[in-house]
Amino acid sequence: MAKKYIDVMDTTFRDGFQSVFGGRVLMEDFFPAVEAAKKAGITHFEFGGGARFQSLFFYLNENAFDMMDRFREIVGPEANLQTLARGVNTVMLDTGSSELIDLHAKMFAKHGTTTIRNFDALNDVENLKYSAECIKRHGLKHEVVVTMMDLPPGCEGAHDVPFYERILREILDSGIPYDSIAFKDASGTSNPNKVYETIKMARKLVGDDVHLRLHTHETAGVSVACYLAALDAGVDGIDMAASPVSGGTSQPDILTMLHATKGMNYDLGGLELEDILEYEEVLQDCLEDYFIPPEATQVSPLIPFSPMPGGALTANTQMMRDNGILDRYPDVIKAMREVVEKGGYGTSVTPVSQFYFQQALNNVMQGPWKAIAPGYGKMVLGYFGRTPVEPDPEIVKLASEKLGLEPTTKTALELANEDPTKSLDYWKKKLEEEGIETTEENIFIAAACGEKGITFLKGEAEVNVRKKSTMKDDCKGEVSMAGTYTVVVDGQKYSVQVAEGDANIQVTEVNGETTADSQPAAASGNETEIKALLPGNVWKIVANPGQSVNEGDVIMILESMKMEIDVVAPRGGVVKSINVATNDKVVEGQTVAVLG
Predict the structure, then answer these.
(1) Average pLDDT, the chain
(2) Whose CA is closest to 19, among 289, 353, 274?
(3) Half-sphere exposure (Cβ direction) of 438: Cα atoms closer than 13 Å
(4) Of the N and C termini of the chain, which has fewer Cβ atoms inside 10 Å?
(5) Statement to judge: residues 588 and 487 lie in one domain
(6) Distance CA 256, CA 242 (A)
(7) Are residues 489 and 584 in the same domain?
(8) Residue 271 domain-assigned?
């Protein structure tokens, strides 16, 4: 009897890079490995989308559309090139308007995409409808997704087989057009028995002709067992990656799965061990100089208790490493459990996984529920759609108070369409003001990436890639202090620029400015120092020296760990000094202002 053919998607160049390097791999460095993968017989690739879209503009000074075009040239016209989209978010930082969602599909179709895998982290089917229409309208294949994870112990009400059956029935009943169905577990926490029962349920519901896929990660150590369970239950496709970006926080290795299915009645993509060995050798050479964070290669038995997806885990630990707070990572993971329990059980996958992490980080660094991360708060208030279960009412009340927002029952798309900053005209005007050509690609880049997209389009983006040849013992925990700081000496502000190296420090006076009443930075008497609770950069200074403020008023806003952190007045008083300048790097505990 002929073996059952199982379609294999190679996730190396999207999810693999995201899960291990936070997406930061330069195209010229990895294109030889794409050639090798093609030579090995791989015809189905995940090649873009998700966080790998923004990372090129943010960290690599590369245009994602150019990368996609080059990738298509290498693999040829017949390859199935797949991207990842987040429903009404597509690949943007926030919910997109109808215009931007349609432009996403149009641009990705133009730049080599065959299939878009389309998911919603809340499993709110309403968030999938319009994006699916756009994907099909522009001639692309649509892979609709049910997102999965296991809940922390003691939690119930979602993420079991009946829950997934309800979501799948909603998708089928909604009339959403699709070409295949995927079950996506970004945290790799679903247990093998649940995977088996879920795929069996889905197969019974949709029949034998619908292509069913499973996507998971090795983060919790059960990915191979889950894939074997899915194969036994009748799945048609699975996702794998190639070493050194396989296993750990990524997908299981292609070689591992070929070995695991030896003697079984499955043909994994027609792939042969020796061909994959040659491909992986090329990939190893391509990535030899890239720093692989230790946590990217590890399996964590704690992840099922605090589900954190591989793609977000390493991106977050790298940011914590950059900011010198990696020692707090275990505390943040532990704090995630309560955040998930009280947040309504949205699946831990982007963007919800980032909301969970940001809130857990707040709870660790600032005290439990002292501050609400904007994304997490808006999620429990309903601004991104309906959560699987009702969030904790006390957290909803707290989020409403902290963010100054009322709960909403409007759909995410309705809210986005009401926002003038999410229109094509708004972003076209922004480009015109900057003297940037208003191509559709540029409009989408700006809308998807915000100010960092504008920075890229102006030619001012910088490359921030972690290569061993240019790093200074980051893997040993040493923290670079390079950056721009503002110090105040006897009431006079000075800009201090610290470069890499031992003695390259430049000090300049800041426009002859002095602080109010020439007060020194340190507080004395009835003065109060306001300190940074997290390391980061000064994004915006709101208050000025001499200004009266009330308790809770925002003094300045820091950008830290992909969050905007309000620095607020702990009491009423007069701002005596602002001790930093916009774009300064600050460390935890640094005095940023003094209140009199």
Answers:
(1) 89
(2) 353
(3) 12
(4) N
(5) yes
(6) 10
(7) yes
(8) no
Which amino acid does the sequence have at 136? K
Report the CATH number at residue 583.
2.40.50.100
Count of CA atoms in the C-beta half-sphere (13 A) of 100: 34
CATH of residue 345's domain is 1.10.472.90
73-115 pLDDT tens trace: 999 999 999 999 999 999 997 899 999 999 999 999 999 999 9
Query: Does the residue 516 lie in any domain?
Result: yes
Q: Are residues 489 and 585 in the same domain?
A: yes
Contact indicator for 16, 241 with CB cutoff of 8 Å:
yes
Cα separation of 367 and 220, whole Å? 28
The pLDDT, as a whole number, for residue 517 is: 34
Q: Which of 416, 434, 456 is the last residue of a domain?
A: 416
Quick check: is 148 in a domain? no
Residues 491 and 579 in one domain: yes
Residues 389, 493 share a domain: no
pLDDT bracket for residue 311 (50, 70, 90): low
The DSSP 8-state label assigned to residue 501 in this structure reads: S
Q: Closest Cα partner for 530 from 484, 490, 565, 560?
A: 565
For residue 500, give its domain range: 481-595
- Read off the pLDDT of each residue in 28-56 and give the average, rounded to a whole number: 97
Q: How do residues 471-501 score in pLDDT, each as one tens digit?
A: 765 444 444 445 555 555 555 555 555 554 4
Q: Which of 470, 494, 545, 556 is nearest to 515 (CA)?
A: 545
Total of domains in the chain: 2
Please list, in sequence order, all residues whose beta carbon lies within 8 angstroms of the beta carbon of residue 275, skipping any fewer than 6 positions away: 39, 40, 41
Residues 405 and 497 in one domain: no
Question: Do residues 145 and 119 make contact, with C-beta atoms less than 8 angstroms apart?
Answer: yes
Q: Of 391, 416, 441, which residue constitutes the final position of a domain?
A: 416
Q: Are 162 and 196 in contact (CB under 8 A)?
A: no
What is the pLDDT confidence band of residue 153, given thresholds at 50, 70 and 90? confident
Task: Establish if 63 belongs to a structural domain.
Answer: no
What does the pLDDT read at residue 354? 85
Task: Give dist(CA 286, CA 351) in Å, integer.
Answer: 30
C-alpha 429/C-alpha 431 separation (Å) is 5
Integer Cα distance of 549 and 347 in angstroms: 40
Please give the Cα distance from 43 to 240 (Å, whole number).
Answer: 13
Question: What is the structure's pLDDT at 428?
Answer: 98
Which is it for strands 573-578 and 548-549: parallel, antiparallel or unpaired? antiparallel
